[in-house]
Design brief:
With about 280 residues, this protein is of the alpha+beta class. α8 packs across α9.
Length: about 280
């Protein structure tokens, strides 16, 4: 861990970001160049004291999860993110594979979408980043670990992930998830991590095994889903998926499908965030 270099890099990157880039008003009385330390801490979900100690070169070694949060908060490019990991004494996350982080350009698009719910997913359905509107709608879905990071695994192994779905919707979603996973497996032929995920799904879900044998292939790009929110009820949303050129990451944008959904989404913005378990909002 190169503490002095890490401290200098973090400080300079913080000072280089305009508050407007992360949705913070840049008022006339603002004296700090770039972001304040407390603003970085808030965006990254860590204590201000730890950000201060990092910038003063007297912190403990940050974890890879904490570095990922800092990279997102500071809107680092892929090269800058890799440099951050090396300064902290860690190997950078792989450029490919299931452990990737959301690309800096997609993170910026989340900021620009503002009140429109949007999230970045890996091609295996792992939620890599969400904007505030998506967290209000769906809860924070970035906290899953292990196989539960992947939508397909949760869908086929956790009854709560589809308990609220009607039989017709449940089957349609299941087929779409399997077809999308099949497309990802085809693109990433030979990737052992992907192969092992499919093997575990085969071992744990008869429904998955049955759908997998049908060999349907389709990258999901547009859909309509109804979310049941614990505070405002049902919201029917149109889902548009934009993919990166290599199909490795996806930007999912959700817009209200009708007036009722728009009004309930507006109400949700007013109510703000209320703590509820990860994944508490069910799709159906």
């Amino acid at each position: 861990m190169q503490r002095d270099q890490l401290a200098d890099f973090l400080r300079r990157r913080r000072e280089a970001i305009r508050p407007a880039e992360v949705g913070i008003a840049d008022g006339p009385r603002r004296r700090t160049a770039g972001l304040r330390r407390e603003e970085v801490a808030m965006i990254a979900g860590m204590s201000v004291d730890y950000v201060v100690r990092l910038e003063q070169g007297r912190s403990s070694q940050p974890s890879t999860q904490l570095l990922g949060a800092l990279a997102r908060a500071l809107r680092l490019s892929d090269d800058e993110r890799d440099h951050l990991f090396r300064l902290a004494g860690h190997q950078p996350p792989p450029a490919d594979g299931v452990a990737r982080m959301a690309r800096a350009g997609l993170i910026r698009m989340l900021d620009l979408l503002g009140d429109t719910p949007a999230l970045v997913l890996s091609d295996l359905g792992e939620i890599l980043a969400q904007n505030r509107a998506a967290v209000l709608l769906m809860g924070d879905l970035t906290g899953f670990t292990g196989d539960r990071r992947y939508l397909a695994y949760r869908w086929f192994t956790d009854p709560a992930a589809r308990a609220a779905a009607t039989p017709e919707e449940e089957q349609r979603h299941a087929r779409e998830i399997v077809a999308d996973l099949r497309a990802a497996v085809g693109r990433r032929s030979g990737d052992p991590a992907v192969a092992k995920l499919v093997d575990r799904l085969h071992a744990e879900s008869a429904d998955f095994r049955e759908l997998w044998t049908e060999h349907e292939v389709a990258v999901r790009r547009a859909d309509r889903k109804t979310f049941v929110h614990p505070r405002v009820g049902r919201l029917t949303m149109d889902c548009e998926t934009l993919v990166t050129p290599d199909l490795g990451q996806q930007l999912l944008v959700l817009t209200p499908a009708d007036t009722e959904a728009r009004e309930r989404l507006d109400l949700l913005r007013v109510l703000g965030v209320e703590e509820f378990p990860v994944g508490d909002t069910q799709e159906r």
